[in-house]
Amino acid sequence: MQDRKGDRITSQMLRFQLLNVLGNPYVHIFGVGLPIVLALLITRVAVSELPADDMEPMISTTIYLGMGALIPMAVLLMGYAVSYAQELSKGIPERMQLFGIKKSVLFGSNVIVQMLFLIAAFLLFFLFGCMFAKIERPTLSGLICYILCMFVFSIICLALAHGIACLCKNFGRTYCVSMILYFAFMILGGMMGISYEDLPKWAKIIAKLLPVTYINRDFYQIWTGKQYHYMPMLQSYLFLGAVSVIVLFLVFGRPSAGCKIKISEER
Hints:
With 267 residues, the protein is mainly alpha-helical. The chain has helices at 11-22, 25-48, 56-67, 70-90, 92-98, 103-132, 140-168, 171-188, 201-207, 211-223, 231-252, 258-266. It has one domain (11-252). The longest helix has 30 residues, at 103-132. The chain is globular, with a radius of gyration of 20 Å. 34% of the residues are buried. The chain crosses the membrane at residues 21-43, 63-84, 105-128, 140-168, 175-194, 234-252. InterPro entries: ABC2_TM (IPR013525).
């Protein structure tokens, strides 16, 4: 029986996707450097205004945990979307399909590589946090919950980014949509100096549907093992996850006429 390599993820495919990630300046600037700089800067400013030093670990931990959500947002929602839109404009996925490599296999290899890069980015992020910010030690359940929530949030961001790039099929449109979502998540999640309580009523309704709101506002309680009501945060993950599934369904359910178009153009 003939072995169809296009039906499975190979090491060559993973290496190709890894080179794409490492060669993308957006992920290094906005996904690694910016979260570290913002977290340390905002933490330093917030701590300098505290009336008591014993509040410093709580404030530092709260800010740092919230800023961690910037990593999947920048690396995936913006960086991956822009990079994949450039590949689409050059016809790279269509050419791979001509060699029998399925879209689902391409997407699966992207998931693996992006998750590996995220792990490295988070390790570097918390390394700087332990060195320059007073982050409280988590409980085992709090650490596991944070890792799980960030992993699921990253998968959702990746699915949205992939769908946006496939639907827009253009660098400019993809960049515009991903940047709007990126800053909308930051503003509604309370990362731009506006807390959830200061938002207008209509914005609060939207903010409740975003996991980043609960990561930035409430995760200190989970991190330190305090009692927490998980249902609102779980509902936000289900909502945003359902949106990403619908977007992916629209992408993978459409007939791929791109290959026929490319062939006819070349002829």
